[in-house]
Each structure stands twice: as structure tokens, then as C-alpha cells.
Amino acid sequence: MQIKKYQKIITEIYSDIKDVEDLGKVANYIPELGNVSADNFGINITKINNESFGIGNFEGKFSIQSISKILTLTLAYKLEGEKLWQRVDVEPSGNPFNSLQQLESDYGIPRNPFINSGAIVVCDVLISHLQNPKEEFLNFCRELSNNFTLNYSEKVATSEKNTGFRNVALCNFIKSFKNIKNNVDEVLDFYFHICSLEMSCKELSEIFLYLADDKFRTHKENSVLTESQAKRINAIMLTCGFYDESGEFAFRVGLPGKSGVGGGIVAIHPDEFCIAVWSPKLNKKGNSYKGMLFLENFTTKTACSIF
Ligand code: DON
């Protein structure tokens, strides 16, 4: 579909939804996230031919939180290969993103890399491969998107470090099953930093183009992932990208995607585009209320889902 058509449909849905009552709540269990204005609403689509359209606050940077779990998974998969799946599974958890429950019966193997426990294990894998994990991961993101303005928010990382008691529990619990190899404090410090990465909708819709089209899968003449690995990450996004609401997102939207408690959502249409939405108020499952509503309308009106 031509960018002009997307532009028309996105503009229509944006004005329909902008003033709809938002039934969500801004996340404040990480205190710094509670300081964001709840009225922010932005959307950006980037097609694989690089044509782009944004509306609302599409250039405002926000905390991408769990969306960064796609990026840590990508780098860990590149470095570790198929061995990665001995440490983390690929099944939907059907549970909240910060749940400890299944780890006991699963002997410390997290259900998937997009819940907190899985992302913490992926961070541990990265620490085993990298000399300076925070710096090298940030460079990986910058090179992948050719965007050297990307950065962590030290304020958000510190805020989460001071209050992230469940993540501390998760990391220690997994270590008791020997599925964390490095120092717990080091793993958590890295995890809190990757969650604090900041991007705008425009930047998000650019960085994830490598999951939509082959030509974005190389940087520095190195392939980021093989075609088969990119397919697999899309598959995990479709089945696990929205925690215990992954079925609902596939049902209502029909695209591989990933949310974060900062209110961002990215969704991929393989061979077509990447789209990002930001609206900070979250529904009860931790996903952006208006973001879900927008994307549902978007795939309905464009008839552009993967199904
Ligand atoms: O670990 C946490 O709780 C946050 N840093 C990330 C959680 C998150 O984004 C889940 N998303 N919906």
C-alpha cells in the first residue's frame, strides 16, 4: 500500500481516538515513569522503502521498557545461536510479565524471552559474551538503526533499581536453579539499563525494520540475524509479545508486536512496514490502552494484518 493511503487512514484513526476516554493508568511502580504526561499520543509508520509518516507526538522520546527485550534477544541470538534455547523457552506464559510462579515447576527456565524472567536470563547470556555490556549493547542499537543519539535514561534506570524488588527476586530465584551464571547485581544493573533505553515512535519504527525486510538485517557488513532467526523472533513476538494478552493482540490486531510499560507498542508487517504507537496509560495487563485500540483500528481499516 502507498504511504499516502497509510497517512490518510492513520490521520483518521488518530483524530477518532485522540479524545476518546482513556481507561488506562500510567505505570508508576517505577516512580520515574509516573512523571510522564498521560496525554502524549504519537504514531509513526516506516515502510521498508524508508517512506515514513508520523502524527501527534511521534518525535518525543520515551522509556521503551520491555520493547528493548527484542533488541537484547536479537544480540543474544546472534552471539549464542541455537544454544540460547537451552536457557529460555519459546512458549507463551499466559501470566503477568513479572510473575515468579512458573519458574519453580520449570526449574528456572523462563517460558520466553519477553517476560521479565526471560529477559533477565538473556541479559546474563549477553554479559557472558561482552566485555562492557552496557556500552556494547548501546552501540549495537545505535549501529542497527544508524542513530547515534540513542541512549539510556540514568534517571529511569536508577528509579527502577531502587524499586525493582520483583526483578531482584526473579534473578536470585533463577540463580538458585543455576540458570544465571554471572553476578546478580551486575545482571540486574544491565537489565535496568536496557529497560531505560529511550526512543521516539519514529526511531522505534526505524530500528525494527530488520524484522520486516532482509536488507536491514546487516550492519557493518555483518548479518544481524539469518532470515530464519528473524522469522523466529517475529513468531515469538506474535505469541508472547503482550504477556497474558498476547492472544488478544493477535486476535484484535493480527501482527507480531511488543509492548512496554512506558506505553509504547511496536508492530511489524513482514515485507511491508514497522509501526510504533505511544500512549502512556496502560490497561490492566500492562499494555497501552490507546495503543491497542489504535492498532486494532489500523489493521481493520487497512486490511493489513498477517492473516
Ligand atoms: O522490569 C520491569 O518491570 C520493567 N522494566 C519492564 C516491564 C515492561 O515493560 C512490561 N511491559 N509491558
UniProtKB/TrEMBL annotation:
**Which keywords does this Swiss-Prot/TrEMBL entry list?**
Acetylation, Hydrolase
What EC identifiers does the entry list?
A: 3.5.1.2
One GO MF term attached to the UniProt entry: glutaminase activity
Q: What InterPro entries is this protein classified in?
A: Beta-lactam/transpept-like, Glutaminase
List of residues binding substrate? 66, 116, 160, 167, 191, 243, 261
Q: Which GO terms describe its biological process?
A: glutamate biosynthetic process; L-glutamine catabolic process
Q: Which reaction does it catalyse?
A: L-glutamine + H2O = L-glutamate + NH4(+)
Highest taxon of the source?
Bacteria
Broad class of enzyme this protein falls into: hydrolase
Xref: Pfam families: Glutaminase
SUPFAM superfamilies, per database record: beta-lactamase/transpeptidase-like
Q: Which HAMAP family match?
A: Glutaminase (MF_00313)
User: What is said about its interaction partners and assembly?
Assistant: Homotetramer.
Its family remark reads: Belongs to the glutaminase family.
NCBIfam families, alphabetically? Gln_ase, PRK00971.1-1, PRK00971.1-2
Query: What name appears for this protein in its UniProt entry?
Result: Glutaminase
The record lists the lineage as: Bacteria, Pseudomonadati, Bacteroidota, Flavobacteriia, Flavobacteriales
